[in-house]
Amino acid sequence: xxxxxxxxxxIVFCVLAGKGWHAVKDxxxxxxxxxxxxxxSAFNPQENGLEAIALPDADERVVPALQQTYSYLGRGHQCxxxxxxxxxxxxxxxxxxxxxxxxxxxxxxxxxxxxxxxxIRTDLRFRFQFIHNxxxxxxxxxxGDTGLVYLHLCPTEDLSGTLKxxxxxxxxxxxxxxxxxxxxxxxxxxxxxxxxxxxEQGDRKGAEEILDSFLELLARRSKxxxxxxxxxxxxxxxxxxxxxxxxxxxx
Length: 251
Description:
Number of domains: 2
Mean pLDDT: 78
């Protein structure tokens, strides 16, 4: 085999190894959720044309909740999710890397490409503003219907201790909560799973109660003229003790 052939095989191996490692970690990388050099502007809403999002008043649940270790649960379009040790909370870390130009676009030097890059940059900026505004709407208008406990999207100085998370393969990270954008939310059982379970058990009344709670939630949200643009929204609802909750707050 020629040197070119060996080089080609090496490139293929590196690509496949990278893709495999990405799949094993479910795409999680700590650099994607903390405000490093390319993400500092993302952690400053005012620099991105957003109104300041007021932090919630002191909540007795916040301090003990942040002192727990959070283990990886999964990822959505907007956030990575981690579950608390006691099973009561979910910590969501926004995927800010999705709102930065790709390495390829940043590295492309040709002037004729500038207009296209600016178009992509404008679209990413709009999407970033949209998700931040969605978080603010959920906290300010739907706090009781989303189970939100704490919304931390601006740098602070009053959060003590470290924020510990464990990724999918068991790596542990200690983060500064003052410098890490995150969302703290009550953990709720998935509504559809409970609904299907009750139907399979022949509990029609119980299933109707879940459906009623879902419709009541939609009615409350509609009265506030708040719209959810996610086409697969049914999987984004929780149910607990006769009440429905909207779990996904990014859309």
